[in-house]
Amino acid sequence: MKDWLKRRKVVQVVWALVTNAHVSGWLTGRIYQGPLKNFCVPGMNCYACPAAVGACPLGSLQSFFSARRPKAPFYVLGFLIMIGVVLGRFVCGWLCLFGLVQELLYRIPTPKVTVPERIDRVLRKGKYVFLVFFVVVLPLVLRDEMGVSFPYFCKWICPVGTLEGGIPLVILNRSLRPLVHGLYVWKLAILAAVTAASVLIHRPFCKYICPLGAFYGLFQKIGFLRLVREERVCTGCGACARHCAMQVDPVRDPDSAECIRCGACVRACPENALRFALAGSEERKKI
Question: What is the model's pTM?
Answer without folding.
Answer: 0.92
